[in-house]
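Appendix B, example 12.
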Amino acid sequence: MKKFILLLTCIFSFTNAFSQTESRKFIPDSLDAYVEEALAKWKIPGAAILIVKDGKIVLVKGYGVREIGKDDKVNENTLFMIGSNTKAFTGTALALLENDGKISLDDKVIKYLPDFSMNDPWVTKELNLVDIVSHRMGMETFQGDFMYWTSDLTSDEVIEKFGMLTPVYGFREKWGYTNAGYAVAGKIIEKITGKSWSSFIDERIFTQLGMNRTTALAEEYRKADNIAVPHTLIDNEVKPIPVPAIDNLAPAGSIGSSVIDLSKWILAQLNMGKLNDEQVIPESVIKKTREPASITGRTSHPFNKSHFNLYALGWQLKDYEGRELIEHTGGVNGFVTSVTLVPEENLGVVILTNSDQNSFYIAAKWEIIDAYLNLPFRDYSNRYYKNFSSRMEKEEKRNDELRDSVKMNLPTELPFDEYTGKYVNDVYGYINIGRDNELLKMNFEHHSKLEAKLESLGGNRFLCTFNDPIYGVRTINFTTEGKEVKKFNFGVHPFIEITTYDFVKQ
């Protein structure tokens, strides 16, 4: 208890005594206390932070533990899954192949994958390599991800189903974050090189930079030593969860790395491909990955100046206080991370966490960047936490209300057994609904480990609770005609996908 009071006193002191002229003292004097307080507040078991400035590592450090309830500490060599920060490596791989003279980024996808097709034949003919990695294919953000995420589908099956989707928007009309585009990119790299995506980036990027512990695949991550275990909040308790099976989308998000390994990636990025005076990645490749290809929208910041937001080859580009930021975030089951470059300040910041329920990974980034730009201390972590807590309270209240409705044993419109059967979506496949005593149970064609129980909310409405908490707690609405069930509309937590699917009873 005394340690807790001492920590609060420390936080209070540096929060209130901070001034703009003293802001850079935040890094050496107060960062550790800030992180420890934030980990406790956000219930994050472990984190790791990297700061690179002017060609030197200022900080490379682990905080907390690799798994809650255990004593193994996070250190600079602890691996975390970095999620969509993988995309910059895939974009770099494509730019390397262009530099090698093997491809042009303006090449059409069907030049390398002649059997690939999109819903619209004209789009199939026109889709090029930049389109698939800059999210300008007309899809809604995360569209299709439920079908692939932790599914049994192979990467080839992911690509096939992706092509069957009907985009929400017109081709190149609007930016929509599309993970499956990177699966297509990975397959093209394989076709061109004769090597898997994972082997190619290991050979051309990891090995060249000396990133000797970095893993390309989730399968490799599971087998590595000194790894951070993924965690999520279940009934407001932090619990470990399995390493997600996402290698069918590997080029979009499966890399695992440490802050010491990522320091080499960041140092090379800030020095236009040079590491230890050796040109490891050609300068032209670094420049190519930063060419804006998509407009993602205007941005705002609660305190400081920010205007545009663009997307390049696996990097987001934006302005901040008159500087360009080259950045990305990453989120997979149990992990959220951020990587940020500020080239004009020769500054790089990496934040890794092993919980997927926090905004600390963004807050700490801003705190560190602001310190180097001599901006006032804002305490982003506390500000973000207030919003997070409010959202979580609303979600928990909603779930409690739904569970209370279940306890009322409200009657269904039709007899319980009428809702059982096989339901099909033309793109995904089928979901089977069977009777399990007083419940209905869902099983999924392409998610052999996923189940969901359905409990009556009255009428044609059911509460859907998944055995995997990442998929969330949802409501399912059935459509009936007369005495027959026709279909239901299905959705999962927006962390996975925003759009929904209609499943028609057979």
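The longest strand covers residues 323-332. The first helix runs from residue 2 to 17.
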